[in-house]
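ping. complex inputs:
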Amino acid sequence: MHRRSFLKGALAGGALALSGLDTRFANASSLTMIDTGALAKPSKSQQDLADTLIAYAKTLGATYCDVRISRYASQSVGVRDQIVTGISDSDSFGIGVRVIKDGTWGFSANRMVDELNGKHSVDEAVQMASANSKLQSSPLDLAPVAAVSAEWKTPIKKNPFEVSFKDRADLMLSVHALAQGVSIGGKKLFIHSNLSCVREEKFFASSEGSKIWQEVTRIDPSTWVTIADQANNQFASRALFVLPQGRGYEYVEGYNYKDEILQAVAEATEKLTAASVEAGKYNLILHPTHLWLTIHESIGHPTELDRIMGYEANFAGTSFVRKKDLNSLTYGSDHVNVVADRTQEGGLATVGYDDDGVASESYDIIKEGRLVGLQTTREQAKMISEEKSRGQSYAQGWWSVPFQRMPNVSLQPFSGKRSLEDLIKDTEKGIMIKGNSSYSIDHQRYNFQFTGQVAYEVKDGKLGRMLRDVAYQSNTTDFWENCDAVCDKTEYMLGGAMNDGKGEPMQSNPVSHGCSPARFTKIKVINTRAQSANARTNMLDYNE
Amino acid sequence: MPEPICSTITNNFIAMITGILSSDELESLSKKIVKLSKADWCEVGIDSSQSAHLRYAANTVSTSGSTTNTSISITAAFGKRAGSVSTNDLSDSGLASAMARAEEIAKLAPENEELMPPLESKQSYARSAQYDDSSADSSYTASERARIAEHAIKEARARKFIAAGFLQTSVRNSAYRNSKGLFVADQKTRSTFSTTMRSEDGHSSGWNKRASHAIARLDSDRAILRAAEKCAAWKGADEMDPGVYRTILEPSAAADIVQQFIWSLDARSAEEGRSAFSRANGATAIGEQIAAPKVRIFSDPNHPLVPAGIYEGGGMPTGQIDWVKEGKLTNLMRSRFWAQKTNQKAVPGPANIIMEGGTQLPEDFLSNVKEGLLITSFWYIRDVDNQTLLKTGLTRDGVYWVENGKIKHAVKNFRWNESPINVLKNIEDSSKQVVTAPRDGDDSMPMMIPMLQISGFNFSSVSDAV
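pong. complex structure:
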């Protein structure tokens, strides 16, 4: 997937009306982290193999070595209209060996998990590190971490891999049947769904004595409808606000598809004739089904230390945040409190340990508007004079090199009482946006533009008519400084995506972002139909 | 199109890399897998690859790595019911288990009215030409990766710049076989190199990127020099008001726009009324003048400078396809199912993308430009409105105001909102096409694209990013 960046092609929306949607506040402590003396998994032979390879790497002069032996399973059911278009089951197993030799990283991975090929990987990783060390300006200096022997599993209630494909297909077909029952006045309905689940089974062993077994499960549902008015050659789409989660099948079983699919068909139909927005400055109420992605792009990425240090300068980009901004930069208003948290229940980035063997934690990134924390790995912690890593190392698979990836980064709700209804009542003139759609931000994370699945006018404290062609543009710190209200924890929801892209070769990272609805004042809104040179200068239009 | 060869006599190749399957091994393994099937029909795809990379940043090496893998994907079907399984367990028990699983899923799956039987055994494929011997020599490519990175870092230090960059070399042998007897195999090498040079104060940045099937054709020295020159020339960028400007897109920026255009050419969505190429009541834009009259965009897997894959999913042969000719839309991609349903010809996706340009070399192209904005590359391009194919994105690593054939001054970055259809329509002039790679898009797609002069391009707001 490309690609390349985050959520390409995925229309999936947010998480409206998620029945049973937990928040970190309601269920903060249900993670299953067991310290054990000896691990039950993986097999003894695989544990022995890791020991052998680590010992072998040491004989070759490696000062550090870690071995990941992992299996990645994924299953998906695709449905279009009333047809199940594909059922697939994938499995990939292999070993990745990472070493430090002469102060430099080397990595080699192979699907053949045995001593002969494992030693070949160690040889290759060590040779690579040695050869590249002449390009190294200063040797790597990992922050310390205590050796641990541990197991961790995503706390799921119903394993999606154990639900029959037929039941999964039937669930999607039943949603589609509901949509097809709606009268849309001679127009044509198209509906697509995909229901995927993934599982990582990962054994990590390091030359520092850690041995960690983890089983991480995630579920990734998406559904979207398109209504085509073929006579007038117009069409409009609306994705459901169902989003991937670090949960089991209970998430889709508990999701309120029944109401939302009807609402989605109605809203896609209404979009065809909705009023086109007048460009200008508006107060925006951003629903969690939309705001999660704005948080991701404008807070999650700029606070990654590898970007700040220039390690992504050639691809994902750097950051407007500088190293010296830590504990001094005003990122937003006093209402803005943001936490990085790999322990959050339901979070896609939630794990027991990262791929450096560092235990997950929850910590502040922004406190009352001030930047107070960054994302680090063992390699990076000392760059900002911190004694320990924040545990943000992650590799997409056994085949990829671990590097700094984003944890769940979430806007904290207002500690008092404020519902979405209260916020709307308190807004004289504005626009409310639900669901994520288009998203784009520059490579230093200043200038961004977002659109939603649906937008409604807010007038005199009430929701008004639907608006179309709405996009907003802002600069990151201007935007967050204009946050003048956040709703309370009863409105909190968790959004997220499976495929946040970063690194070369690009790797995907699953990550969640929680928030309650929030209001942003005086934000620039453009009309997307009035964009393009041809629209602005009356040149030939695309379909003339 | 060159003389096609019979599917059963594909190029023989041997694996030069430990852990990658040779053509003989692909043939025998695929045969073995198909023999395991008890289904009405089955098909198998095999990908065997090794990829190695080196990254550098902040004038130092950061990560490097190598991955070797072989994965198989099986689809088995009973009537209109199908199941698909993929695995990288090539043991006898692993293969048997994968086939059994595919068949088990197929038996339980609901009927899929759109399921197409596999292709018949006689297909014509182009001759594969995307494999370069020296690019498959892992010790040579490892030394080249280190040499190029060292050169970039030295160049940066000499100029008081900070370099970041990425080098990747890969070898991939692949095959497809189905139970109707069709077998096809292909092999490819691919090397990519991109580098960024930033000034120490962070106020200027330059970039360049190369991609080819042959590592020797990367011309990395020139890429490093171009990135450094771009950085030097972008110092002291002025802020210009957003608006519509005459714009000159360098080949990489143009490649991103053309790729966005090509990916939207889907027949089914157009004929169903949910595409920018839909017309009222099920008609499409095929045959319409959608671009400037000189525009020709086509695919040709046998092009010597941008050779590409000879087959796509399901063993479907790729081939020479005109997408836009004399400015008229000539083809939309059409799946086999949709082709059968609508009684039209199936059209595979693009194996590569070639856009014909003019006669001037890109380095001379500016000399004819009276005034306009010169754009080095685009970043973070996303869909905004599928009805008009409106996209948004940003400029990156070099925007310059050109007057009377010369760069007058550097300009700060912009966010833009524009439709690739408008860009093609508004082309005033183009250079000779050159091998290039999109920055934001899919750089595994071989592309030859000219520099383009566009009469108007809509810049929506200013970005402070450097």
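Residues 236-466 of chain B form one domain.
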